[in-house]
Design goal:
Elements lengths: L5 E5 L3 H13 L3 E5 L2 H10 L4 E5 L7 H11 L4 E7 L3 H9 L4 E5 L3 H31 L1 E2 L2 E2 L3 H14 L5 E4 L6 H11 L7 E5 L5 H9 E2 L11 E2 L1 H4 L4 E5 L6 H13 L1 E2 L8 E2 L3 E6 L3 H6 L5 H7 L2 E4 L10 H16 L5 E2 L1 H9 L5 H15 L4 E2 L20 H15 L4 H8 L3 H11 L7
Parallel strand pairs: 1-2, 1-3, 3-4, 4-5, 8-15, 8-16, 9-12, 12-15, 17-18
Antiparallel strand pairs: 6-7, 10-11, 13-14
Helix pairs in contact: 2-3, 6-7, 13-15, 16-17, 17-18
């Protein structure tokens, strides 16, 4: 036996534990023993054993119960059941529950060797599966964008095509769908990749400050302008400017930006001499700008200048096949960041995640996985770790207006943040002023203490 494995022997009989221990230790395996089910679970918490030999009849937690716990929390662990001849029916039941094989007591070394050959074969298959899975995950990533749905594959294809152009791009999608990631991918694949990529959330900055941020100002140009400052339109020269939530900017700012896009020149606040600028514009919004143009709430000339190329990112509920892949990615990310030993997400929990509607999209999914990892008490994230998620919307509730859903979502996030406006505004990705306005608009109130 050339392969080496980590093996745990679980049996209440000391002679069995010692016999197995010495037999496997001589073969070079890393081996440990446990005299009961609870002790075995404690040791599994500390070390992910690859193979368990479990006696069916033990006082307290028997082998069947331990098998169920192991398969629920450590589904990749191989379990071999040990039983007396009279309990063979129980052994067959155990195999239906996930045991890989069984040994009848008393057994001879050649019987154990035969079982181990099967174990090694299963272990090799599992290793190949994980390798192929890693290869697949590599193919389903594109510049940190993760997805395997047809909609995401289409986006992966269009990004390189769009990148070679200098045309303005408008990315459409709900909050949390990953619009900035797509913008960064376009920049990374473009001839401007060596230049700066600068992002600004237009909805998070008051219009008066946005003008200063974009165009820059001369010292003393207005109250508070104590220093000379370059604007982002000048700093980003040679690179890409990403304007998120462009639908939030005022009509005046739309006129100013339209002039810049046409003339490739800016004038700092407080100055008169124009400055040449060279940047590519990528914009994003969650709003229906076409409808707003028709209703004269957004300038038509500016709209057609920024939407030369349109990329639409569908919400997560429209590409549910991406959810397990994203969930696994975030699980690994937060296990690494928190140093928590959490191996995987259970099948039931994965099914729950796929059924949930994710109003906050990928950002909400990431927050949910982070919270589950932090609060999980085992090495498997289960359904109980997502108890804070509400069930998927019913067909009736899906007929609610966007205003009603936005109101409910803001109330929910505000409540989860302990009615702290600053924390809630960060999660909602809007500034505090905007959140205060929305709270007032919807008549939201925190409960009386």
């Amino acid at each position: 036996m050339n392969e080496k494995m980590s093996i745990l022997i679980v049996d209440d009989e000391r002679i069995i534990r010692e016999s197995f221990f010495h037999w496997f230790e001589k073969s070079g395996h890393m081996v440990d023993t446990a005299s009961s089910g609870p002790e075995a679970l404690e040791k599994l918490e500390k070390l992910p054993f690859e193979l368990l030999f479990v006696d069916i009849k033990m006082p307290g937690m028997d082998g069947i119960e331990l098998l169920g716990r192991v398969k629920e929390e450590y589904s990749d662990t191989i379990v071999i059941i040990m039983t007396a001849y009279g309990s063979i029916e129980t052994a067959v039941t155990a195999m239906k529950l996930g045991a890989s094989d069984y040994l009848l007591k008393p057994f001879k070394p050649d019987q154990l060797s035969l079982v181990m050959e099967k174990v090694f074969h299963q272990h090799r298959l599992a290793s190949e599966y994980h390798y192929l899975k890693a290869q697949l995950e590599e193919k389903t990533r594109f510049d940190n964008i993760i997805g395997q749905s047809p909609a995401m594959e289409d986006i992966f294809k269009i990004i390189p095509e769009v990148a070679v152009s200098e045309s303005s791009v408008l990315i459409l999608g709900e909050t949390g769908t990953g619009k900035e990631l797509v913008a960064k991918a376009i920049h990374a694949k473009s001839k401007r990749s060596n230049g700066p990529f600068m992002a600004i959330n237009c909805g998070a900055i008051p219009d008066t400050l946005l003008e200063s941020e974009l165009f820059g100002h001369q010292k003393g140009a207005f109250t508070g302008a104590v220093n000379h400052r370059k604007g982002l339109l000048e700093v980003v020269s040679g690179g890409t400017l990403f304007l998120d939530e462009i639908g939030e900017i005022s009509s005046k700012m739309q006129v100013d930006l339209l002039r810049v896009l046409e003339e490739k020149k800016i004038t700092r606040i407080g100055e008169s001499a124009p400055i040449d600028v060279d940047f590519r514009l990528i914009s994003a919004t969650r709003r229906n700008l076409e409808k707003e143009v028709a209703e004269r709430e957004f300038r038509e000339d500016f709209y057609y200048r920024v939407n030369v190329i349109i990329i639409h990112i569908p919400p997560l509920r429209k590409r549910r096949e991406d959810i397990p892949l994203l969930a696994e990615h975030f699980l690994q990310k937060y296990c690494h960041e928190t140093a928590k030993k959490v191996d995987h997400i259970s099948r039931d929990a994965t099914a729950l995640l796929k059924d949930y509607d994710w109003p906050g999209n990928v950002r909400e999914l990431e927050n949910a996985i982070e919270r589950a990892v932090v609060l999980s008490k085992s090495r498997t994230v289960g359904v109980r770790d997502f108890s804070f998620l509400k069930p998927a919307s019913s067909p009736v509730s899906r007929q609610r207006s966007l205003r009603e859903m936005e109101k409910e979502y803001i109330q929910e996030i505000w409540a989860e943040c302990g009615w702290n406006v600053t924390k809630a505004s960060r999660i909602l990705d809007i500034n505090r002023v905007t959140l205060h306005k929305m709270i007032k608009r919807y008549g939201l109130k925190r409960p009386a203490s």
